[in-house]
């Protein structure tokens, strides 16, 4: 099959009346979902566009998903927009992707109207009953090829502009083959979805629903603050698989939630996006011993995942979990600084991925694409693009990969991949901020911003909030009269990393 | 109370917590902020806030949070 939607249609034929997606307001069966997506697509098709970007505002509801797959039905690709992001940042995404339409709901209208460009806003709730143009849709399908883009997913970029990873149908289809098989996702699987749809982790649970006929319940963000409510929701919806970022799983461990309430149906717990600490994982393992736990690892550039480890042995609280072995249909290897393959245990190098999971590169950003998507350094016999992850790893004695950090300044904070450079670049644009440095205090999981200039702290925070999403806001802001410099005349980041707390006194 | 305000300010700088009255509903404290706050309160005041206490009413403003802290301190 060449198109993601063929998998959806196969599933809809097999299980027409089974629930596909649900939020707290409503749910859709597979056949209803197909119908609604086609209705939205038919509206888009009123204009003769193909292989263009359609922006979809993420409202964490079923409509968002209808928008995403409706865009694909129309022969275009979608770009999910964080609807809590400042207009400034969304504008940067618009400038790169140039969406023709934005699928929004009423609550997004004010924000969407602040954006400039040729994008036309469509209220998705008014399109769900639109007349379906079966013939036009059939022609779109005929023309489609598996190398068409399915979506562009934007992540933080160090120059201050977000980077859009362009992913094809083919990559998602081959990825799904591995995902559903390795983790045993089937029509019996009921996901409790935690991750935002603008985050690559959501691709795995969202798409696997379409591929195998599973069900996905969207958990409202606020439930993660109030854990009892969260467990009630999981039990009410009979959720049996969690595909969550570790921060969300840690909430449950840190509040010792299982002393008060227990999820009754959980069979699989999978974590992605950042390092899962064993201290909190051991709490889960002690309380829910019969659950399958898996640690998955990968970037947006390989759809979602490239290596994985299904937990099969005990770990002490102070040990790190391995990121495991390559997924089926992935070749993952380690290169040293001279691009020579590392095969010895314990030697650190960069993780490089060879696989159909690998994306095309960054949308309209050749410079960044050429740095990471490169000819396989191990041969020059034919063109073969591999992805340099920028992640440092080493082999352990079990033949698994252990994670050893980022090659550049990119960090993981609250499950999001953030380049500190993007925050710095945005902050340095603020009036009366002269020099600015962003650090990441890994022990405390805090972003620290240090700046020199006449601007008042309140003003700097107010301005930065207009430019970056909440998860990129500094947790600690320090104004210094003099930035420290090293002997080369560069800002002394190493000193600040160690001693920034001195300035707090 | 001042200690609490200080903690709130480290979690979410730039908010006037003495006046703010809709921390949860108004989205001033996101879910992760509330849980970070719970950890800090547990450490700072040597109390144990259990999931039973982590309900929106107890976190709607600084006054409610402070009342919770005092209640748990008295229980010890």
Write structural notes for this entry:
The complex is a heterodimer of chains A (505) and B (76). Chain A has 505 residues and is of the alpha/beta class. Chain A has a domain at 410-504: GMP Synthetase, Chain A, domain 3 (2-Layer Sandwich), CATH 3.30.300.30. Helix content of chain A is 30%, strand content 26%. In chain A, strand 1 and strand 2 (27-29) form a beta hairpin. In chain A, helix 1 crosses helix 8, helix 2 (30-44) crosses helix 3 (62-73) and helix 10 (246-254) crosses helix 11. Chain A is globular. The mean pLDDT of chain A is 93. With 76 residues, chain B is mostly helical. Chain B has a single domain (2-11, 24-75), classed as Non-ribosomal Peptide Synthetase Peptidyl Carrier Protein, Chain A (Orthogonal Bundle). Chain B has three helices and no strands. Chain B has helices at 2-11, 31-45, 62-75. Chain B is globular. Chain B starts with a helix and ends with a helix. Chain A binds chain B through residues 221-228, 247, 251, 254-257, 259-261, 414, 457-458, 461-462, 470, 474-477, and chain B through 10-11, 13-14, 24, 29-32, 34-35, 38-39, 49-52, 54-56, 59.
What key phrases describe this protein's structure?
heterodimer, A: 505 residues, alpha/beta, GMP Synthetase, Chain A, domain 3, six-stranded antiparallel β-sheet, 30% helix, B: 76 residues, mainly alpha, Non-ribosomal Peptide Synthetase Peptidyl Carrier Protein, Chain A, 51% helix, globular
SSE layout:
The complex is a heterodimer of chains A (505) and B (76).
Chain A: H1 4-14, E1 19-22, E2 27-29, H2 30-44, E3 53-58, H3 62-73, E4 77-82, H4 87-97, E5 101-104, H5 109-113, E6 120-123, H6 134-143, E7 149-155, E8 163-168, H7 169-182, E9 190-193, H8 201-212, E10 215-218, H9 227-236, E11 241-244, H10 246-254, E12 268-271, H11 278-287, E13 292-297, E14 307-310, E15 325-326, E16 331-335, E17 341-342, E18 349-354, E19 361-362, H12 366-372, E20 373-375, E21 385-395, E22 401-406, E23 410-413, E24 416-419, H13 420-428, E25 435-441, E26 446-452, H14 457-467, E27 476-480, H15 493-499
Parallel strand pairs in A: 1-10, 3-4, 3-5, 5-6, 9-10, 9-11, 11-12, 12-13, 26-27
Antiparallel strand pairs in A: 1-2, 7-8, 8-19, 13-14, 14-15, 16-17, 16-18, 18-21, 20-21, 21-22, 23-24, 25-26
Chain B: H1 2-11, H2 31-45, H3 62-75
